[in-house]
C-alpha cells in the first residue's frame, strides 16, 4: 500500500517581521475608534432628542400672552373685568352687557387664542339678546399662569367665571350657558359635568380624549419629526403641567351633563381634531343633545368662515335650551 502524501504546511501569510501570537498594539484601533464615535453620536442624538422634546413641550404648554388692549379702543360699552381662580390666578375678561338680557353666555376661546378673537361673535350674540362674558384662559392673553393644560384646569377657570357672575346682583338670577371652541369646547364640557349652574353647553371642535388626539395633532404641528418625539413631548408636557394627559377625557364626562342640553359642533374637514371626535362625543352624551357638522376651512374654523349661520345656530340653541323648551335638532 502506498503511503498518503504528507500534508504540506500552509504558507505564512503574515507580513515580513510580524510574528504569530498576541495581536500587536493598535490591531483593532480602527474598530475601537469607530465604536467610540458611534457611541458619541448615539449619545448626542439622544441628548438632542430629549432637548428637542422638552423644548417643544415647553412651547406647547406655554401659549402666547398678549398686550392688554384698553376697552375704549374697542367698544365703550364693554366692561373690563378680572376674577380669581381657585388656585389664585387672576384672569382677565370682558363683560358685554345687555339692557334686558334673557340669559348670560360665557364664550371660551381655543388653545393659543384669546378673547380678542371672539369679540365679533360676542357682539353678535349680544345683539340677539344675550349678555356675554369673554375671558382669557390661564396662560393666554392677559391672564395669569405659565402653563396650559389644554382643557383640564381650564374647566376650573370657567367655574371661576361662574363664581364671578354670582357676585354681581344684576347677573345672579340669569340662566347661564357656555360655548367653547377647541380647547374651550373641551373645558366647557368638563366644567358643565362638574357644575350644575351651567344650564346648557355648546362645544365646537372639542377632542373626545386628549391622549388619543395629541399624537395626530403633534404631527400636524411638527410634521414628520413629531412621530418619534410625540411620546417624549407628551411626557415632558405632563411633568411641566403636573397633569396626566390620560385624565383629560371629555368623553367620560359628557354623560353627566344630561338632562341639560348639549350641542356638538365640528368641521368635517378638520384634520387636527378629526370629526370622529364629534361623533364620539355626541354618542356618549345624554339627551337632549344636538349635532352640527359641516365642511369649513379646517380645525375650529366654522365660527369665522360661516359666521352668520354659526351665530344663528348658537342663538337658536341657547334660546331654546335656556328657556322653557327642549332644543330640537340643530
Which characteristics define this entry?
Rossmann fold, 15% strand, 330 residues, alpha/beta, 8 strands, globular, 8-stranded mixed β-sheet
Notes on the structure:
The protein has 330 residues and is of the alpha/beta class. It has a domain at 79-210 and 250-321: Alpha/Beta hydrolase fold, catalytic domain (Rossmann fold, 3-Layer(aba) Sandwich). It is 39% helix and 15% strand. It contains ten helices and eight strands. The protein has helices spanning 29-61, 119-127, 154-166, 183-194, 210-222, 226-241, 250-253, 276-284, 302-305, 307-321; strands at 78-84, 90-96, 103-108, 130-135, 176-181, 198-204, 262-267, 289-294. Strands 1-2-4-3-5-6-7-8 form an eight-stranded mixed sheet, with helices on both faces. Strand 5 (176-181), helix 4 and strand 6 (198-204) form a beta-alpha-beta unit. Helix 1 (29-61) packs across helix 6 (226-241) and helix 5 (210-222) crosses helix 6 (226-241). The longest helix has 33 residues, at 29-61. The chain is globular. 41% of the residues are buried.
Amino acid at each position: 500500500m502506498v503511503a498518503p502524501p504528507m500534508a504540506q504546511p500552509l504558507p505564512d501569510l503574515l507580513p515580513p517581521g510580524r510574528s504569530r501570537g498576541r495581536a500587536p498594539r493598535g490591531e483593532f484601533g480602527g474598530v475601537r475608534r469607530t465604536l467610540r464615535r458611534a457611541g458619541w453620536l448615539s449619545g448626542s442624538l439622544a441628548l438632542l432628542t430629549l432637548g428637542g422634546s422638552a423644548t417643544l413641550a415647553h412651547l406647547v404648554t406655554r401659549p402666547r400672552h398678549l398686550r392688554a388692549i384698553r376697552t375704549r379702543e374697542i367698544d365703550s360699552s364693554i366692561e373690563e373685568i378680572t376674577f380669581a381662580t381657585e388656585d389664585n390666578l387672576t384672569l382677565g375678561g370682558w363683560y358685554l352687557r345687555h339692557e334686558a338680557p334673557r340669559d348670560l353666555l360665557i364664550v371660551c376661546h381655543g388653545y393659543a387664542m384669546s378673547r380678542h378673537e371672539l369679540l365679533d361673535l360676542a357682539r353678535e350674540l349680544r345683539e340677539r339678546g344675550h349678555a356675554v362674558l369673554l375671558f382669557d384662559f390661564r396662560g393666554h392673553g392677559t391672564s395669569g399662569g405659565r402653563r396650559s393644560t389644554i382643557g383640564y384646569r381650564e374647566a376650573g377657570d370657567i367655574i371661576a367665571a361662574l363664581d364671578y357672575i354670582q357676585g354681581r346682583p344684576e347677573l345672579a338670577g340669569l340662566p347661564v350657558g357656555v360655548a367653547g371652541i377647541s380647547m374651550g369646547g373641551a373645558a366647557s364640557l368638563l366644567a358643565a359635568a362638574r357644575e350644575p349652574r351651567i344650564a346648557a353647553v355648546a362645544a365646537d371642535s372639542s377632542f373626545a380624549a386628549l391622549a388619543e388626539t395629541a399624537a395626530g395633532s403633534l404631527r400636524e404641528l411638527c410634521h414628520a419629526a413629531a412621530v418619534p418625539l410625540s411620546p417624549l413631548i407628551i411626557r415632558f408636557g405632563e411633568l411641566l403641567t403636573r397633569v396626566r394627559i390620560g385624565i383629560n377625557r371629555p368623553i367620560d364626562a359628557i354623560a353627566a351633563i344630561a338632562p341639560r342640553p348639549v350641542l356638538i359642533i365640528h368641521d368635517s374637514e378638520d384634520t387636527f381634531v378629526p370629526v370622529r371626535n364629534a361623533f364620539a362625543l355626541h354618542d356618549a352624551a345624554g339627551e337632549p343633545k344636538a349635532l352640527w357638522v359641516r365642511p369649513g376651512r379646517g380645525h375650529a374654523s366654522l365660527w369665522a368662515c360661516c359666521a352668520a349661520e354659526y351665530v344663528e345656530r348658537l342663538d337658536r340653541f341657547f334660546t331654546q335650551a335656556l328657556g322653557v323648551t327642549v332644543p330640537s335638532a340643530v
